[in-house]
Design a protein that fits this description.
CATH architecture of the largest domain: Distorted Sandwich
Radius of gyration: 56 Å
Oligomer: single chain
InterPro entries: Cell_wall_metabolism_enzyme, Dup_hybrid_motif, M23ase_b-sheet_dom
Keywords: Membrane, Signal, Transmembrane, Transmembrane helix
Structural class: alpha+beta
Organism: [Clostridium] hylemonae DSM 15053
Largest sheet: 10 strands, antiparallel
Number of domains: 2
Strand content: 25-35%
Protein name: Peptidase, M23 family
GO molecular function: metalloendopeptidase activity
Length: 252
C-alpha cells in the first residue's frame, strides 16, 4: 500500500513544480510586459506633454505676430495720414501761392481798375455820334434798312484814326464778328466792361493792362452792317453783362 502511494506523490510533486515554474514564468513575463507598458505610457505622456507645450508656445506667439501686424498696419495708416496731411499742406500752399500770384498780378497790372458809378470815361475817338444808345425803343439802321435796338454808341471816324482806351483796365478778349469786326473787350472793374469794335492793327493782347488813353487799335473799314454809315467805332458798355448807356459816363 505504501509502495503504491510513493509514485503518486512523486507525480504530484513534479506537477506542483511545473505549476510553480509556469506561474513564475508568467510572473516574470508579466513583470517585463508591465514595465514595457509603463515605459510606453510614460513615453506617450511625455510626447503629449511636449505637444501641449508646443501648442501653448504657438498660441502664445500668435498674439505677438498679430500685435506686430497691427503695429505695421497702424504705422502704414499713420504714414498715409502724414502723407495726406503733407499733400494737403502742399495743395493749400500751392493754392495760396496761386492766389497770391493772382492778387499780385491784379495789383501790379491794374491798380486803378476800380470803375464805379461816379467814374468817368474818355471818348475813344474824336467824332460825331452816328447812332445813339437805345434799349428802350428801336432806332433806324440805314445799312440794314430796319429798326432795331442799339446797345452801343456808333461814333464816326476816319479810317486809320487811333482808338484809345476810355478807362484803365485789363484786356479780357479780342474777337472778330461779322457785325462789329475786330472787337476788343476791356474789363475796367466792378463788373463794368467796354467793347471797342470796327478796329484793325490791334497792338494789345489778352491779359494786358492798359491805362486810360492807351492805343487799342485803329479804325478799319466798316463791316457790311455799317457800310452806309461809314467808318466808325462801335463803343458798347456793360455792367454785370447787361448793356448800359456810355453817354452817362462820358466826360463832356
Amino acid at each position: 500500500m505504501n509502495k503504491r502511494q510513493r509514485p503518486a506523490r512523486k507525480r504530484k510533486g513534479a506537477t506542483a513544480a511545473v505549476v510553480v515554474c509556469f506561474v513564475a514564468a508568467i510572473a516574470i513575463v508579466g513583470t517585463y510586459t508591465f514595465r514595457d507598458y509603463r515605459k510606453t505610457q510614460q513615453e506617450q505622456q511625455l510626447a503629449q506633454a511636449e505637444e501641449t507645450n508646443e501648442t501653448k508656445e504657438e498660441k502664445t506667439e500668435e498674439p505677438t505676430e498679430t500685435a506686430n501686424n497691427d503695429l505695421v498696419i497702424n504705422t502704414t495708416e499713420n504714414d498715409d495720414k502724414q502723407n495726406t496731411d503733407e499733400n494737403s499742406g502742399d495743395t493749400a500752399d500751392g493754392a495760396a501761392a496761386n492766389e497770391n500770384q493772382n492778387t499780385q498780378a491784379t495789383a501790379g497790372s491794374g491798380t486803378s481798375v476800380h470803375f464805379t458809378e461816379d467814374s468817368q470815361l474818355l471818348w475813344p475817338v474824336n467824332g460825331n455820334i452816328l447812332m445813339n444808345y437805345s434799349m428802350d425803343k428801336t432806332v433806324y439802321f440805314s445799312t440794314l434798312d430796319q429798326y432795331k435796338y442799339n446797345p452801343a454808341l456808333v461814333i464816326s471816324g476816319a479810317e486809320g484814326d487811333q482808338v484809345i482806351s476810355a478807362a484803365p483796365g485789363i484786356i479780357k478778349s479780342i474777337d472778330v464778328s461779322a457785325e462789329t469786326g475786330t472787337t476788343v473787350n476791356v474789363d475796367i472793374g466792378n463788373g463794368y466792361e467796354l467793347f471797342y469794335g470796327q478796329l484793325k492793327e490791334v497792338p494789345v493782347k489778352v491779359g494786358d493792362y492798359v491805362e486810360a488813353k492807351s492805343v487799342l487799335g485803329y479804325i478799319s473799314q466798316p463791316t457790311k452792317y455799317y457800310s452806309v454809315e461809314g467808318s466808325n467805332v462801335y463803343f458798347e458798355m456793360r455792367k454785370d453783362g447787361q448793356p448800359v448807356n456810355p453817354m452817362e459816363y462820358l466826360a463832356e
